[in-house]
Amino acid sequence: MTAPLLDVADLRKTFVVRRGFPRAETVRVQALAGVSFTVGEGEAFGLVGESGCGKSTAGRALLRLIEPDGGRVLFRGEDFLGARSRRLRELRQKLQIVFQDPFASLNPRRSVGRTLAEPMHVHRLGSKAEIARRVADVLDEVGLPRDAADKYPHEFSGGQRQRIGIARALVLEPDLIVADEPVSALDVSIQAQILLLLDRLKERRGLGFLFISHDLGVVRHFCRRVAVMYLGRIVEDGPAERIFDAPLHPYTRALRDASPVPDPRAKVTMARLEGEVASAINPPSGCHFHPRCPHAMDRCRVEYPEVTEVEPGRRVACHLYPAAA
Amino acid sequence: MTAVVSDVVAAGPLTALWIWSRRNKAAALGGLLVVLVMLSALLAPWLAPHDPLEQSVLNRLDPPSAEFLLGNDPYGRDILSRILWGGRVSLFVSTSAVLIALVVGSAIGILSGYVGGPFDRVVMAMMDVLLSFPSLIMGLLVVAMLGPSVGNLIFAIGLTAVAPFARIARAPTLVIKEREFVEAGRAMGFSHLRIMGVHILPNVASEVLVMGSLWLATAIRTEASLSFIGLGVRPPTPTWGGMIREGFENILDAPWLAVFPSIAILLVMLGLNLLGDGLRDATDPRLRHE
Lengths: 325, 290
Fold this sequence. Notes:
The complex is a heterodimer of chains A (325) and B (290).
Chain A lengths: L5 E14 L5 E15 L4 E5 L6 H8 L7 E6 L2 E2 L5 H8 L2 E4 L13 H11 L5 H14 L16 H13 L5 E5 L7 H18 L2 E6 L2 H7 L2 E6 L2 E7 H6 L4 H9 L39 H5 L5 E4 L2 E3 L9
Parallel strand pairs in A: 3-8, 3-9, 6-7, 7-8
Antiparallel strand pairs in A: 1-2, 1-4, 4-5, 9-10, 10-12, 11-12
Helix pairs in contact in A: 3-4
Chain B lengths: L1 H9 L2 H11 L1 H18 L1 H4 L31 H37 L1 H16 L2 H12 L3 H27 L3 H8 L4 H37 L11 H9 L7 H28 L1 H4 L2
């Protein structure tokens, strides 16, 4: 079997914060408590969860924008976390990121053309003329006029800026794009356009995507497989339709019931999720979800459930689904 | 609003400057003052009616007259010519000092803010130590230790201004390094040097330049103060501070000796402060969208 495009295993990250006055206390926030998943060639893999569950940290840690504390990230079988300077720079070309906030993700003092050309200059990908041609091509590809190259970010709308952000991710010809809430900051009508653009890129370029979002509708549309995160751990993963049509983990069920369905005839179901997201500083004992879980048992309060494969390609971490004996 | 700005830009930089001046009258006046003083210092060899070093016993302590517009000093030298020539020295020393402090201070500030952690804390503690010396005392110390010369004077004044520039460059760096375009740069494999120089520096530049114009005024004052207490450029080379001190001995008999160089210092400091305030308002994003 060939290695998957991206293989993340047991990724860990704990933030250490000192806070309080006059006696500062050291507080540990476990943002990633061993996250594992794989993304196949040309596959769109979704990572969903509430805000603060660590999904964005996972995206940044696997790209080494935040150095993870432990775990393994293999890109086509090659160790990305252990890669040293030269090789790391080469590998970085293949893994790119698109950000949520199209206003913060572009340097306000650089024209779009320079922003797009810079990575190619840095990696010495061709002569000046070739780079200029590539910039024009990539602007075409993301649906922006060619004269956009001479303008500055503030002259564009949010949706157009997001196209520029996508164009910047594309110029280095990556094989995987980490899309961190790429449409969450946009109007719904613009969201659809950007999603269509990402769809087209996926088809035409065979790009793999790690799609991080809290919007289940968007993830369901875009992704083939999905993992659901809660407090730094993946609680359930599997094919997108199966996860959303027949969720197993009580958290996934609550999440699905709480997300709005764009159908006027659909019955409005009240959110069954009570209470706040538990604190990652002081996670509850046992299964982190038990204080909010309608099915919590005694066992849930003391023991974190193991990840169990319940169907082929479908795993869940919950005591309701004991491992096949 | 953007449409208005681009129309102005399309009409040419001079028109844009004109429109900006109409909106910021105080800053424009300041800019005009600074340009006039700089020009008069630069063009001193052509503007000065007399040799600033030429002595004449006949004219000693003469009040302003038709031939010597601002009067003469105890050696009979022409005050106007000495002010014009003295401006060259005063402005050269203070401008070089501020430029050096601006470059070194911004580099330290950006590096410190970008690296962060214990390195940042140590560097900033060092800057706080520098800041805690009043600039005049610091200048005094350095010049007293190294001896008065133009080079040492520049070094002394520059040293007092490094810490403020480091602080002013560090603060926006802390904000900008968390922005996603910096993360994007790292994801694309840019070096730290490139991120600091190409992506952070231009976004810090406006704050630093405003600070520069305000500190130039302070540097001129420091230079004058050091010259006044005799630690500046050696006589007979004219400097504004030195002229005030020489005039001070005859302040009751011949007040024009000290008054005219003081007015020169006043004008350039007023101009620089007006200009600096105007620039600060113009670059402050909170005031930009009124």
